Amino acid sequence: MDRIVKVGMADLKVIVGDGILITLGLGSCVGIALYDKTTKTAGLAHIMLPSSKLIKNNQNKAKFVDTAVEYLLELMMKMDAQRKCITAKIAGGAQMFSFKGNASEILNIGERNVQATIDVLRQHNIPIIAQDTGGNYGRTIELHAKNGILVVKTIGHGVKIL
Amino acid sequence: MSFSFDNLSSLHLDILKEIGTIGAGNAATSLSKMLDRRIDMNVPEVKIAEFKDVEDIMGGAETPVVGIYLEFSGDICGTVLLVLDVISAKHITALLLGNACSDGLKRDFSEIEISALEELGNILTAAYLGAISSFTGLTIKPSVPYFACDMLGAILSVPMIKFGQTSDKAMFIETDLINGTERFRSHFIVIPDMESFPLILKALGVV
Known about the structure:
CATH class of chain B: Alpha Beta
Number of helices of chain A: 2
Oligomer: heterodimer
Number of domains of chain B: 1
Structural class of chain B: alpha+beta
């Protein structure tokens, strides 16, 4: 039985060798799964907002794309991950409520979170090898440390293996 | 003083609770009139919790729920989210539409059922905001309601993100709608923008 490590909202975790990192019910948030297959180091972040720069209350590094990726990489390096071998898979960034006309920017935050994730990973030269983002439905994701597989589960939209 | 849920005093909490209670009373009255039958609501519980724990308090991140989302603007701005479990939502639509409850476990809602639930969101929101408005004299205009049925965590992420810009905690109000012996648990999340919060407290004369 694999051990399961839960990653909450605005949270991040790193495991090595075996086990599963799981984050439940991603909506407009984005799950960023980083993996180094040479050392089987897996890191998963559940971010809520695109950038820590515009916000005063930004102590929680796991909440923002920019600080979460930085911190996740730092933790993975501490576990002796090979920086050059780290790849990314991302999921989430849905628009949960469909709206007509003028709604606040918060309703399309999912899209902005995905774009920020792509930009930040590019800045760190981490290739995105799989992506399941957008849509109007929630996702639960599981990152398997032994092989880097990312399982995406939904209600009514099937299961994907990335 | 900049406002945050971290430094909310027990006085502020009591005020929120009081407004919540009156709002719930208004909502029960409107619902009763609409349905021509007695609908009660219990005294709401106002809770402040860490993001990480909110989903567990409300029944687990993967639980399928119905969410009705509204925004409000005017003198104060913010968002409202009404969360119902799927079975309660089915029962309530049956009450509202006057027909037999369709399969309670089925996640799909027909267009008319969605419309009925959006209307419920409208009524509850108007009642709650009406309570704030009549206490404070502030003008508050709600938007049209938006419906979603999906995982609790995914639906919660929308208001949570709004909260997340300023705090790591969330406020939510738990109330039961009571129809005779049936009880429907509803969670009502009201989030004034952080700039609006001091305005409300000021208008109430507590700061």
